[in-house]
Amino acid sequence: MAIIEALQTAPTGTSKPLEDVLEALNFNEAGLIPAVAQQYDSKDVLMLAWMNRESLEETLNTGRVCYFSRSRQKLWRKGEESGHLQHLVEMRIDCDGDTLLLLVDQTGPACHTNHPNCFYLLVEGRKVTVTAASPD
Amino acid sequence: MAIIEALQTAPTGTSKPLEDVLEALNFNEAGLIPAVAQQYDSKDVLMLAWMNRESLEETLNTGRVCYFSRSRQKLWRKGEESGHLQHLVEMRIDCDGDTLLLLVDQTGPACHTNHPNCFYLLVEGRKVTVTAASPD
User: What is the ipTM of this complex?
Assistant: First the structure.
């Protein structure tokens, strides 16, 4: 954390080696960190998933987003079954080193339900409403 | 979860009572769910924080965003010390009922470091760079 705390008050343009920052990231007790995926041009928030250190490094090395599936307990190369890949445009890390923001270019729908993104349930007063149709 | 699974394939416009959906939300073992805050007009992702059932209900009831602070283990009415409030414009729930998206109107900087949002650390090749200046 020390390096990430130091960056909280550092001037714009200050840089640190990636390796040192990755070492200081705040993975949880399961070794995971939440990653928010946002479509880089529309700025729509697509989904939230989790990464471990290995999936994070693979994502940076390949430019194709790889998460860690908590249900399957293994690397999850987004789109490996659906073809709905995410290409990484930019990765950002938050102030406390405990969340990632992925600016991505999403191929096809981001959500496994075939909605364009996962946030199709809208809270309206005392109801929750489905807001986007699934494709055929 | 059954109600949330049913909504995954429901047509656009389908509604369920809020209370039933809240009961089915997938809070983690600590009783928390991650909430992504996004500025409603610029669509900038501001931060990720956590809510428990009580903070979620308070947020919906008051229209002012309240999180649960994991470090302080208590309700955290965003801006209660800094004055940097978040007004809730819209709340969305994801496909699996395990993440919230809050469209908010942020007063002042969202980040406790006084950056406009928490994602000011940019990964560039093998470096991490501070991208936004703190105000004076």
Answer: 0.95
